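Re: folding output
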Amino acid sequence: MIDEKHLDSIRLSSTPVGQRFVATFILSPNYHLFQHVDIRLENPERIPRDETVIFAMNHTDRYNYWPFQYQLWRLRYPFTTVWAKGKYYRNRIVGKILDACNVIPVPSMGYLVEEFYRERFGRKIGTEEYRAVKDWIDGRTDAAVSAAKLGSEAAALFTRGVIEHLKDYHQLLMEKVAELSTKAVREWNLNLIIFPEGTRSLRLGTGRTGLAQIALYSGKKVVPVGCNNSDRVYRGHSPFAKSGTITYRVGEPLSVEGRLKEFRITEPFKLFSRESQQKYRAEFEGVTQVVMDSLNELLDERHRRPEEKA
């Protein structure tokens, strides 16, 4: 489980052994020997070499950041760290590999709900009960309505006190994620890859504000990267690519001195705290909108967000 101890144990590296091993002995043979993967990086000159940045990328499939990391490695850009879902760490071997590859696990509230239930009862929580708990936490329904949808075991486990504990614990873990992320770009000479949608989708979805908070807090530039057709190369769950062409379009960097200037926060704030998210909601959502609009322009039609109907 991703907890305080796990996050405290992570040691990011400016020259990660895991990434170099994967690039040399797995990706290179896969892309050039066993298959033919054409990785096209358009406008690479927009990626600064003299400073670290936050890459905002759409998330079409499980592995669509791998070819991008590989191409940056070949072009001798600084290495990266990337946000990944906490659920990928349920397999201890996979978790060890991800740690070696400079990955930062991000435990969502949904992940904590599932793990809390799994630890207590040794099995996965039911879909309807999970949704009831999440709606309660997210404020979509009140406590009484949500509790009425829970079975006896779940109702005994997810009390009002436990719900508040999960909220507080999630904030604590996200503060540690924020600390790792800011140190990565400020101290360890790493670029940071974030999928602002927070989940995989063939078409660009709605952005979440985590990236915006990191950008405004760190002052680092956001570089949107549109990933096109990786889903046709990485099919299903297999980590081995099929032959094909993947195009990464790099957008103009977004900075708090430029397009994001109107959302700049000039006083100190605490990342991912409830207070900050309430006080600076307009700023966080404003940056997120600019990033998602910029990202949408870099995508092929099949990946762009659906047009809103009048």
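--- second protein (sequence, then structure) ---
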Amino acid sequence: SPALMGSLSAFRFRMFDLIDQRVDSGDGLVHYVNVDSATSVGAALELSARFPRGLWIHGGASLQRAEDDVSGERLSNSPEWKVNLKLSAPFAGRGRGAIEVLHEAGRDTVVSTRTDAFLLVNATLTWELATFPVCIQLQARNLLDEDYALPGGVEHRQAAIPQDGRALTLRLELRF
């Protein structure tokens, strides 16, 4: 409908001759090799709604299993599920506020450990000035200062790389 849109998709795909990093046992250096194939199977659901007066809500969720076709092991850095919710609304004339919530499963690392699941909240305020072609935006990423990490590669010393905590960004955009 004009105000509501949804989609559901299921997928299965195979990837061949993937490029991966391997450590050479002779000299200890990392090099790139083509590896066997991998398969990913999953489903994704999205729903968006636009309401009168500019309110917009979007949500989505996905489930997947990606694994090496030879060993049957789950691929590293590939979350089993993700969920997101976004809400955006106008305020104070030419302003707009948005909040985004992301929740993601842990991921396997290249050294057979696993990162923790995490929840991120991001918020953005945007103002379009009426008298000047200027847009001002204030954004807070990782608003709740979530302590989380993402898998590293074989070239990293640590299995998981800690991500940034709360970060504030002020952006001024001049349009002409």
